[in-house]
């Protein structure tokens, strides 16, 4: 079971997640990130290891074998600074039978300190430990080769797939380092997807036309009851408003839309809150995704005594092995939220995450043109010139 975030302000603001132990691969012990982490977490026990064990997919968090205990038996979360041996840039792992947005992942690490009961990482990763890849020179070499090979080829990339983009930024400085590296690459737009209210990355002076500041949003009851450790929706939207005022494009992700008592009113309240913080022109695009999960996840949550009632709905097995809501309820929810957003002037900025053309037509009355129509449209929106000023 993932520990709760500490109550009240943390003793060290750079350590909001109660990280008490840090394992550092020998290969990255002398890295700039290791030095930053040691400086920012003086209260944490550090141990250099030959190589910390990687996470393995397929074990529900809290149910499969976990990593080593912290050095000296320290309680609290464990952070592992690792040397990543695989590719840093990879395509989003979407099912080919559904519409894919063409997003590319910059793989910065694995695991999230927040504890959301719908999170697919709970069943994908083997451990609750937080892992960050500290061999950034290797990452920059790979990205520089890929992005610089043909400057006319555009890339829409992000870091929020296997980890929250910004949850560990106060500890690692990873995003600031990445944005500094990418500043002169005109053909790359980076999406920073988070549930936090962290805007420290803005201190790196990134280009507003090349950064998309993105927030996951949900209904108030889901945020309060199922997103343990995450900031309230108002804090996220206040951060989004500040980013928009600084000239950055904002993206929002309703993913997953969760069936729960009063969900219609709940999502209406969220859309009203969005409209009170952001103008339509502040928003680049909004994704809508239905609840879907790996089959192991409910059993893992039940073993921890945290199985929400929304897993009692009717689900079908997806084409990629996940389970998702039956289509009638899925379409009803997606159509409801889309309709609310359309009334706010956002009709041209909505897209569905991992859905078939049939569901697209049922929800939005249309489907993207051609096999890569959605990817092309989102690329256009991502590179669209931002309008400055109030």
Keywords:
8-stranded mixed β-sheet, 18 strands, 5-stranded mixed β-sheet, globular, alpha/beta, 12 helices, 30% helix, 390 residues, single chain
Quick overview of this protein structure:
Helices cover 30% and strands 20% of the residues. It has 390 residues and is an alpha/beta fold.
How does the SSE layout of this entry go?
Layout: E1 19-25, H1 32-40, E2 45-49, E3 77-82, E4 89-91, E5 104-106, E6 109-110, E7 115-116, H2 121-124, E8 130-133, H3 136-149, E9 155-158, H4 169-172, H5 174-182, E10 188-194, E11 211-216, H6 220-226, E12 227-228, H7 233-245, E13 249-257, H8 263-277, E14 283-290, E15 292-293, H9 297-303, E16 315-317, E17 323-325, H10 327-342, E18 350-352, H11 357-364, H12 373-383
Parallel strand pairs: 1-2, 1-3, 3-8, 5-9, 9-10, 10-11, 11-13, 13-14, 14-18
Antiparallel strand pairs: 4-5, 6-8, 7-12, 15-17, 16-17
Helix pairs in contact: 7-8, 8-10, 10-11
Can you describe this structure?
The chain has twelve helices and 18 strands. Mean pLDDT is 89; it is low at 1-8 and 55-74. It is globular. An eight-stranded mixed β-sheet has the order 4-5-9-10-11-13-14-18, with helices on both faces. Strands 2-1-3-8-6 form a five-stranded mixed β-sheet, covered by helices on one side. A three-stranded antiparallel β-sheet has the order 15-17-16. The chain is an alpha/beta fold and 390 residues long.
Mean pLDDT over the residues = 89
How far is it from the N-terminal to the C-terminal residue, by CA? 45 Å
Rg from alpha-carbon coordinates: 20 Å
Overall number of strands:
18
Portion in helices: 25-40%
Strand order of the largest sheet: 4-5-9-10-11-13-14-18
Give me the number of helical elements: 12
* Uncertain regions spanning at least 5 consecutive residues: 1-8, 55-74
